[in-house]
Amino acid sequence: YMPAFLVDHLLRRTEVFDRKVAILGFSFKAETDDLRDSLGPKLYRYVQRQLPTRIRVSDHHLPDPIPEASVEYPRNHSRAEALEDAEIVFIATNHAEYGPALKELAETNPEAWIVDLLNVGEADESTSWMKVSAHVQPAEANKGLYDDFFGRYPELYPATKDIAHFLADHQLGE
Fold first, then answer.
1. Distance CA 127, CA 47 (A)
2. pTM listed for this prediction
3. Could you tell me which residues come within 8 angstroms of residue 18 by beta carbon, excluding any fewer than 6 positions away?
């Protein structure tokens, strides 16, 4: 359900329809070719539902095409091909090479939206090359409640996404 959360939050800030999307990383974890339980295919499907102009996937640990039937064996582009003219970039796996790639992207395409849940770009308020739109973290006083909630998150998300988004917005003061 994390892919749905990422796409939903992005849609609050910009449209995906008719945009060029790149997904960097498709494997389950960094520096592997293991697709079991990967969020990459789920993210691909959620993005695809928004009807972008194109989705280009890049994961240098996987073959081309990527052996994932649930998304019809997508082509595995080089990182440069995937990022070429990308308007939205999702980081789905924290491969080491993506941090420098995001810094380069910020210089060559500063208007691109970057969804980096794994923070491979190491963004914070002092990062001069990347604009951080928001950090959403649990209030320390509510840590136990959040830990319990996120432990149940995969089961509860479909029924509670509106509440979760309200809480995130509330913490941001929106």
1. 27
2. 0.71
3. 51, 52, 53
